Amino acid sequence: MRGALLETGEETRRTINNFLSRLLQEKMVDAILAPIETSTGLVTPGFVTNPEKTHIIDVLAPVIPGVAMATVVSQITHEKPVEKRLGVILKPCDIRALVELVKFQQVNLENIYLIGVDCYGTYPVIKYKEILEKGNLPVENVFEALNKGGETEFRDSCKVCLNPVPIYSDLCIGYIGIEKGKLFIEARTEKGEEFLRKLGFKLLELKERNRAVAEILRERETKREKYFGEAEKELNGMEGINSFFEDCIACHNCMEVCPICFCKECFFDSDRYSYVNQNYLEWNPLEGTVPMLQAKVQFHVGRAVHMASSCVHCGLCEQACPQDIALYKLFGLIARNIQRIFNYTPGRSVEEKPPVQEFKEEELKEFIG
Amino acid sequence: MIKVNERIGVFICHCGLNIAGTVNVEKVAEEISKCKGVVHAEHYIFMCSDPGQEKVRQTIKEKKLDGVIVAACSPDLHEHTFRSAAASAGLNPYRVEIANIREWVAWPHEGKGEEATEKAIKIIDAAIEKLRDNMALLPVEVPVTKKVLVIGGGIAGIQAALDCADAGLDVYLVERGQSIGGKMAQLSETFPTLDCPQCIETPKMTAVAQHPKIHLYAYSEIEDVNGYVGNFKVKIKRKPTFVDWDKCTGCRECMKVCPVKVPSEYERGIADRKAIYISFPQAVPNKAVIDAENCIRMKYGKGCGLCAKNCPSKAITFEGNGSIEEVKVGAIIVATGFDVMGVNSFGEYGYGKYKDVLDALQFERLLAPAGPTSGKVLRPSDGREPKEVVFVQCVGSRDPDNWHPYCSKICCMYIAKQAMLYKHAVPDGQAYVFYIDIRADGKGYEEFVHRAMTEDGVIYLRGKVGKIVEEGDKLRVYGVDTLTGRNVVIDADLVVLATAVEPSKGIDDLARKLRIQLDQDGWLSEAHLKLRPLESLTSGIFIAGAAQYIKDITDTVSQASGAAAKAIALLSRDKLEKEPIVATVDEEVCVGCGNCVSICTYNAVELDPELKVARVNEGLCEGCGACAATCPSGAIQLINNTKKQIFEMITALTRRD
Amino acid sequence: MEKDYFEPVIVGFLCRWCAAAAADAAGTSRLHYPPNIRPVRVNCSGFIDPVYILRALLEGADGVFVAGCRPGDCHYVDGNLKARRRIAILKETLKTLGLEDQRVVFEYISTSEGSRYAELVKKFTEKIRGLGPSPLKKKFLTV
Q: Which three-class secondary structure string do you get for C43-79?
């Protein structure tokens, strides 16, 4: 992949924002949808149309407060495509979610330019705030971790994430495998290359970046196997699942933030479903007591059956849980196993049909009989 | 969900002792009467009888029932009966549900009365839960195309096509071979009357060719079938003939000069045809085709071309890829017939190895007056007249260990006929028949076999043949006569094997295109073996002739006329009523993800581009419910089979006592 | 009613064209099999939402027996292949969670296979009897 190498010095954020200003100045896009800084130092999705105002954008902020950017794009484009040209800044998991949402007709990419950003990992929102309070810049922590290797305070799903680099976008703002004080803006499509050329950049290839990414992936593969291996042990059987969900308060926040849960109303919340287990009353509890867990289990497992084949492993479910239940452990594990049987990687390509929309004549024989 | 003022009536059938012998119907009625909304529960000896149905009608009126459960036999048998009964008493037929407590409960659980009774209660309870949410429905009306497709141009297809055409329907008759006529056209004479098939079938073939309502597609195959009863869309592929049929006059000058000889399918390989051919003298259509695999010019793209030079009407083009035509029909009759088991299957009998071991269809050609020997019975090996002929029955039939478990049904009769005809041709010869049983169960059949035995002196030996070995110019047949318990060895000049009859090759592929089923032996499945033998389970597709199971000509023709009558009756209406169990979309809930659009086999669902919600075309929807299962929101549902209904059924079925 | 041995509850989902017809045929032929299966007749195996199976298990079924037409025989062309995917997703989920996915079985049974239906139901019932009560309920129930 060809791209432009930018000198940043200590001014990484400013360099990126200047680049984004130029996209607006040169009228390549009419607006940019990006994480913008809030008064507390967190970020929230916001539009920038004035090239003078890009300083508010913080694309590298290692945090995802609220919903995924893919969900925001879906809210904007579901009814009809946007009329103005919109550049959208997305993390790799955002992009994969976006690709899935395209397949489910929830996102229309007309007039949308995808600007991906490398993501070595994100912190839980609370952790992010703590770092801010200490007066540190969280992104500096990330850079440091990247150089030294490892970062133990990322969200679990980030620690085992196999996609630190976006796999599908027009442009990609890359820092992984790039020497300190520089950024690499990669063109992934013809459109992206056109952008860079119009801005007068010299395009070159950077092979060592791929090697650095491969190195991270090797490490993460091992971590991931270990993580899911432990999850499998913990969640084994009804006992494990019961203790896992005991403290669930059925707020369904996990579903609300899930980018793949695109339904207007969750089936498991609706009156089409209305789960009233009258059988409980007729059952004869062995221990003289019955926790009303079936409904919770049915919601979580049922939701997994609906979305797991397209789960992008963003882990937002876990972050959204007010009870701190390690939900990614459960959903990530189910998703990994289901995606494995279909040899399906969500977000890989808009051309690929999701497993729930097709079938093959010769497959899955092991599930018969 | 229980609604206020529900008024459900439950009728439990004894079916004589079929149900009541196992299930405690009184207890069932008592328990079910406690269910909420049930205002009437009774049991009766035969619900399907007139008085039984009258009870349903009376109770609906007297107790103002708004829903009826009949707990009886399989819904495949009497769902229609009870829905009609309810309808005549003013209750919407879709407010009737059947609980199958005979096939699913009483019969398989004979001797387990207590468990069967409990299970019957559960199944009825589940049916009640479904019924609560059943909507009153009206049938969907669809238009009808008054045309018929007949697949297969044997005697079954010919008869069906003629009957439909005579009733004024347009008929597309598709035959994959060069000519119609089928197996019947290959026969010498037919039992038990000894008519010559040419004399009785040829006029029908000509009638097909001349009938203004019949569109004959010979040398053609079914490419694709879409649509539903009354509105099928069929793609017919005309295979390339490399001869312009508009110009071909059937003069056969081409066949005289063609230098390539190929074993003739019509003569079943005991004589040759040319690479350009018309199957037999009476062929319909009387048009030549080039067998591209064997024609020198077609194989090498150059050379030969003698036929074209000799063709007086310049019809031979060596060009073309065939064509595909789409026709619309309202009904389809499948009459694809049968095949006789192939060569090489029976090594122990030297079949395919010894020239003088023939299958019965080959022997038909030796007996046929217009066959390669002009009706003289001569050995293929040396042209001598055979003096000792052995016929072996049940070769590959009634042999579950090695071949087919079924009886090929026609062999007993045609072997008697062949032995008889052989004796007429060679009066001083001797015919032996090895048989297991003689099955001669048609009009005049028993007398016919008897005649072969007594008047023509055919020797019948009850037993099987172990092996056949060539000894000099004789075939030594090692058999056993189980009536005397002795081994029998016959030095024969000629052996005829009655090989098993099998479903026509390619029937599996065709059945898939038609969406109809095959049974375990590969015959077409009928909707009901006794009561609906002419129909497939797919509405609008009928079955005629040996495609359903082996039949002789008499039965084939009767069934073909029957299937035609069914099609004619179906198409006599201007509108058809289609089952209203189709998918519906709750637009408030639908998020427009398109899972249903992707998964629907019938292209019956599309996304409304404006509202971004799914829309169902009721005419195209077949009611399979695949969309409902793939919808994450539960927005698209199958009418009267909603998620909620299934959930309530599950709750009822898993309820503990 | 307390029993001194375990009687499993089995919910069946049978496609009306093949499996339900095979169940009819089994009855007509007076083939005997254990009465534990309580079947629901559905239009097509492709209609079966995996959530139904999940609900059945959570409501107290010890096993779920799903059957559709053989590949190529489906009255709706390929509903049975669609069903296979959904069953696979459900079974894989159960397996992942250690919830004994062998309690859910999907069989292809053709119209003519009455005796096979009886045989499969018998085998499945015995299997479930051997497995004991479903883990989804056994914590809560005396059996």
A: CCHHHCCHHHHHHHHHHCCCEEEEEECCCCCCCCCCH
* Residue B100: closest C-alpha in chain C: C24
CB B420 within 8 A of CB B451: yes
* Beta bridge partner(s), residue B461: B434
Strands B8-13 and B38-44, by their bridges, are parallel
Give which of C137, C142, C79, C105 is closest to C12, Cα–Cα. Answer: C105
CA distance A106 to chain B (A): 7
Distance from CA of B519 to the nearest CA of A (A): 21
List the domains of chain B with CATH numbers.
8-137 (3.40.50), 147-239+322-337+504-570 (3.50.50.60), 253-310 (no CATH), 339-502 (3.50.50.60), 579-639 (3.30.70.20)
Grouping H, G, I as helix, E, B as strand and the rest as coil, residue B349 is helix
Whether the bond between B285 and the residue before it is cis, its omega within 30 degrees of 0, is yes
Kindly state the tokens that stand for B147: 């045309």
Band of pLDDT at residue A287, cut at 50, 70 and 90: low
In chain B, whose CA is at the least distance from the CA of A267?
Answer: B633
C54 inside 8 A of chain B by CB: no
Closest chain A CA to residue B643: A272
Nearest to C96 among A287, A334, A364 (CB): A334
Residue A293 scores a pLDDT above 80: no
Separation CA B424–CA B457 (nearest Å): 11
Contacts B651 to C, Cβ<8 Å: 59
> Which residue from A minimizes the CA distance to C104?
A369
pTM assigned to the model: 0.73
Distance between CA atoms of A48 and A31, rounded to whole angstroms? 6
User: Which amino acid is present at B521?
Assistant: D
pLDDT one-digit tens code per residue, B148-188? 999 999 999 999 999 999 999 999 999 999 999 999 999 99
Which of C21, C26, C79 lies closest to B76 in CB terms?
Answer: C21
The partner residue sitting opposite B643, judged by closest CB among A263, A272, A358, is A272
Helix (H, G, I), strand (E, B) or coil at C98: coil
Which positions 285-314 of B are in contact with C (Cβ < 8 Å)? Answer: none
With contacts defined as CB-CB under 8 Å, which chain A residues touch B628? none
As given in the structure block, the two tokens for residue B171 are 């008929």
Instruction: Assess contact for B627 and C47: CB atoms under 8 A.
Output: no
Residue contact C41–B100, C-beta within 8 A: yes
- Hey, how many other C-beta atoms are within 10 angstroms of the C-beta on B341? 21
- Residue B630 above 90 pLDDT? yes
**Touching chains, B (3+ CB pairs < 8 A):** A, C
- CB of C87 within 8 Å of a chain A CB? The answer is yes
Strand bridging mode A112-117 / A86-90? parallel
List, for residues B259-288, the tens digit of each pLDDT value: 999 999 999 999 999 999 999 999 999 999
Q: Do B626 and C46 touch (CB under 8 A)?
A: yes
CATH no. of C10-137: 3.40.50
Is residue C43 less than 8 Å (CB to CB) from chain B?
yes
**What confidence tens digit (pLDDT) does each residue in B87-128 have?**
999 999 999 999 999 999 999 999 999 999 999 999 999 999
What average pLDDT score do residues C109-127 get?
Answer: 96
- Asked if the model's pLDDT at residue A174 lies above 90, the reply is yes
Q: Could you give the 3-state DSSP secondary structure of residue C11?
A: strand
| Amino acid (one-letter) located at B408 | S
Which of C23, C46, C69 has its CB closest to that of B103? C23
DSSP A133-174: HTT--HHHHHHHHHHH---TTS-HHHHT-S-SS-SS-SEEEE
B166 three-state secondary structure: helix
For the residues B492-518, what does the mean pLDDT come to? 92
